[in-house]
Amino acid sequence: MIIVPIKEGENIERALKKFKRKFEKTGIIRELRSRQTFEKPSVRMRDQKKKAVYKQHMQINEE
Predict the structure, then answer these.
(1) 9-33 pLDDT, tens digit each
(2) Do residues 3 and 22 lie in contact, with contact meaning Cβ atoms separated by under 8 Å?
(3) Cα–Cα distance between 22 and 5 in angstroms, integer?
(4) Residue 22 domain flag
(5) Distance between CA 31 and CA 18 in Å, rounded?
(6) pTM of the shown model
């Protein structure tokens, strides 16, 4: 359960912003979306390798 302490006189929008930030950090939405469809482990690994190659390529170009 996410608890957001609110100080007296604090704006409700600011409290909502804190709640949303904490909620995103838990990763619940990301996990729910990943569970909606089954993805074979080989496909998952292939995608991870593609991302790693892309990141490495971007890092080399940056230097």
Answers:
(1) 989 999 999 999 999 999 999 899 9
(2) no
(3) 12
(4) yes
(5) 21
(6) 0.53
